[in-house]
Amino acid sequence: MSSSPRKDPIFNPNSNHNKRMIPSPDDALKHALLKLRPRTVSQSGSTSPYSESEPESDSSNPNHLPAAADCTALLSDELLLEVLGRIRDRKQHIANSLVCRRWCVLCGKLVKSIKLIDWEFLESGRMSFRFPNLEDVNLVPACIKSARNSGILLSNSLIEVRLSSGMLENGEGMFVRKGDVVESKAIDGGVAILAEGCKNLRRVALMNVSEEGLNCLAKECELLQEMELHNCGDFALRGIYNCRNLQILKLNGNINGVYGSVVSDIGLTILAQGCSRLVKLELVGCEGSYDGIKAIGQCCQMLEELTICDHRMEGGWLSALSYCRNLKSLSFQSCKNIDENPGLDEHLGSCMMLEELHLRKCQMRDKQGVKALFVVCRRIRELVLEDCWGLDDSIFTAATVFSRSIRSLSLEGCSLLTTQGLESVVLSWKELNRLRVVSCNNIKDSEITAELATLFSILKELKWQPDSRSILSASLAGTGIGQKGSRSLRWK
Question: Please, where are the H alpha helices in 198-288?
Fold first, then answer.
């Protein structure tokens, strides 16, 4: 009897038997989760995996916390904000803000200073909502319409601008045209949103703002103490008339090659009448004359620091400095001249309380203007001259007017001044006790006289590096470096 081979059962997808053999996706996922669960430690010390019959959590135990529970949820916002505020690293605040929505809100309250790049972020109200406790806001970068991904950055001590090809080829002689700046009406609206949302503002930097925007800022932000204005005209300054607590102001009227606006005696007079509590004032590229500086001196009686950068003042303005009776520090930076027509010395007056005079990167070829400045500042105790062009022996002799008061002298980058010119002046200063001479190549160690050496011996502080070349050759003596046919020294 023959037997037929056993045939395998035909696969039937509708069969119940086959359904039990193939695991469902839910069962596979459940099995994988069980494998990932941590093992429990029994009282006897053995470990065993969770079983399917084991409960997920014990809801009857109030002290039990799930593995993914937020432990900081038990802390109040005030306490958690205090904890997060202890972190000094600002980058860590950014990382903390990504934890959850609550941490994002709390970390936003810790931000005190911001430099805005996207103007829409301010107009939408998101900036004041996201950072309600801002104290220092710089809106200038966002006021200029420039390409964010531009690889050309124009930067100096006054402003930073991202330049596009259109800015470089505008044919107006300025990198920033009127069309490249957000309109004054839009800026006023953004300033109003900022003032309403951030009432704790203490410092703000603005550009192309008008009287309306400054008025709103003055009314809403009573704690405002410091302001920086770019590209604002005379009549826009009427808006800061109500900034009664303003103490520091930096007014940028004209920056060469970047933008141009006019601030004249009208604006300086409005400024003086509205900001009577000013302590520090910086005028950059401002026009004006005797009348504008006189108004500042008469109205701003608390003014202690005055900085004048690249001024365009008319002749004769220098004598108005005598009205600044409480002025203690006077600085000139990047000025092409001091005063083209200062007048007679007996009409100049003097600043009785002035203690410091700083001149940096200024043209000092006009002996009459330099002499008039020294006469007005003849009671100073500290004189700083850095990288001033045209300062030679004949002009430096005008500093003998300081013989009764000066105690400190700092010279740097004055290449035309010689050892004899320095000696003729400093020997007449009987109260001098601090001297700093750096990178003045015409002042030589070999030309120091016995009188000058005696003066050096009684000084309290002396920094003497007048000629970097002579110091370098002395330090390389005997090494053979720098001589013809020997080893060479290459600077990297």
Answer: 211-220, 265-274
For residues 361 and 387, the answer to whether their CB atoms sit within 8 Å is yes
- The counts of H helices and E strands in the chain are 18, 21
- Cβ(300)–Cβ(283) under 8 Å? no
Task: Using alpha carbons only, give the angle 379, 385, 386 rounded to the nearest 5 degrees.
Answer: 160
- The structure tokens listed for 374 are 């020294």
Q: For tokens 């949302």, what's the residue?
A: 197
- Measured CA to CA, the distance from residue 231 to residue 261 in angstroms comes to 5
Nearest alpha-carbon partner for 107 in 82, 141, 137: 82
The pLDDT of residue 176 is 64
DSSP one-letter code for 317: G
First to last CA, the chain: 103
Three-state DSSP class for residue 282: strand
SS3 363: strand
* Cα-based angle 366, 369, 375 (whole degrees, multiple of 5): 140
The answer to whether residues 327 and 321 touch, using CB atoms and an 8 Å cutoff, is yes
Structure tokens at 434: 């601090």
Report CA-CA distances (Å) from 137 to 122, 134, 144, 378, 397: 11, 7, 16, 39, 46
DSSP label of 397? G
Residue 4 identity (one-letter amino acid) = S
Residue whose tokens read 């002799």: 397
How are beta strands 160-163 and 152-155 bridged, if at all?
A: antiparallel
Burial label for 81, CB within 10 Å (0-12, 13-18, 19+), is middle
* ∠ Cα 312 313 318 (to 5°): 140
Q: Which residues pair with 226 in a beta bridge?
A: 203, 248
Residue 265 backbone phi and psi in degrees, to 5: -60, -30
Q: Which of 139, 131, 256, 143 is nearest to 205 (CA)?
A: 139
Rounded distance, CA 410 to CA 413, Å?
Answer: 10
Residue 11 burial (CB count, 10 A): 7
Neighbours of 359 (CB within 10 A): 22
Amino acid 448 reads: I
pLDDT along the chain (492 residues), means of 10: 46 49 54 48 43 45 54 69 70 70 73 86 86 89 72 64 58 60 89 90 92 91 91 88 88 77 91 91 92 94 94 92 94 93 88 94 92 94 94 93 90 93 92 92 88 90 80 53 44 34
For residues 398 and 417, give the distance between their C-alpha atoms in angstroms, rounded to a whole number. Answer: 13
214: exposed, middle or buried (Cβ count in 10 Å: 0-12, 13-18, 19+): buried
SS3 412: strand
